[in-house]
Amino acid sequence: MGFAHALRKGDTRLFCPVDLLAVLKEFEHAGGNPGARDHFFHTFNNLSLGLLILNTLASARKHNVIPDRFIAPPRGSPQPALKLWESLWTLTCLFHDPGYMGENFWQTFAVALGVDARVEEDVATPDPVVTRINNAWDSEFLEARNDLIELFKHVAGLWQLSGSGRGNPSHLFDSALRRAYFNGRKCGHSLVSGLNLIKRCRKAVAVPAANYDKEKASKACVIAALSMMFHDRHSRHTLVEHGVPPISFEDLPYAATLMFADALQDDRRDIKVSRFPKEGVLVSLSVSQDEVLATVCLPRIPVKWWHSKPALDYSSLHCLESCSPDAHAAMRYP
């Protein structure tokens, strides 16, 4: 948490609700997501891996590239301690998983009540809760959705001639978001994480830093939200099924980096055990301007977790390869 607060001070123009991570930590301590990995610890694993990768691949990014230029400080004004890509990666990674607290109603309710959060799969979400979730899509999250659509059009390079006969890309993207948001049983944690971050920034009432920039803070949150929505399997599959085109690494490097880092690790599964394995599934990682090569070793994790291991989800590799015509994703299994 001290490291997260130090990163927040690196660009105080932006909105960075670090205390939200403390809430996620307590949610994990209470067993809010039984059987899943420790997402609080996992957040910092991803953060470190992403910094290592982007320090090579993004080190030469200029202030005028999209989407970084949307939060660039005016020429001649004081520059933040963090580079723009460092600020955007920090926001993307630190807040990509708090949506787990809103993913499943019964688990969140159990944590609040202080009882076992294990819930049978066939237990339905109460109708009043479903109504509240659905209503929020067209009310409280409406502005955030519109922000995401506008940024998506910029970074995806979508331009459609009038009378082309094709469906509106904005409507296509919004339709895919709606399905990823709530499928009738649970919410998609990656999209909820992003929507919540944007909304919190828009509604922030705490006293900000002296150089806090409301507009750039909001834009940074939208960039982070768009970057994080591709990292989980449910959201990624939903977007692909709806025909949403991939975004190039050059235009949105934080999305591809989060997908890649997310697939390279398997953190502790039992939050009650205050120990971590000396060796994880990631064996080595080498980064150059031409190649990012990860070597993983699946026998280092129990077979019972293999079915959900992101490294075995070839859709993530396919999505990464689609992000750039020159991209090549490879995983070696010793």
Protein architecture, described:
A hairpin with a 4-residue loop joins strand 1 and strand 2. The C terminus is likely disordered. The protein has one domain. Helix 7 crosses helix 10 and helix 9 packs antiparallel against helix 10. The protein is built from 13 helices and 3 strands; from the N terminus they run H-H-H-H-H-H-H-H-H-H-H-H-E-E-H-E. It starts with a helix and ends with a strand. The relative contact order is 0.14. Helices cover 46% and strands 4% of the residues.
Fold topology:
Elements: H1 2-8, H2 19-29, H3 39-57, H4 84-94, H5 105-113, H6 127-137, H7 142-155, H8 169-181, H9 189-203, H10 214-228, H11 233-241, H12 253-262, E1 282-287, E2 292-296, H13 314-322, E3 331-332
Parallel strand pairs: 2-3
Antiparallel strand pairs: 1-2
Features:
334 residues; mainly alpha; 13 helices; 46% helix; globular; disordered C terminus
Describe the structure concisely for a colleague:
This protein is mainly alpha-helical and 334 residues long. The protein contains 13 helices and three strands, in the order H-H-H-H-H-H-H-H-H-H-H-H-E-E-H-E.
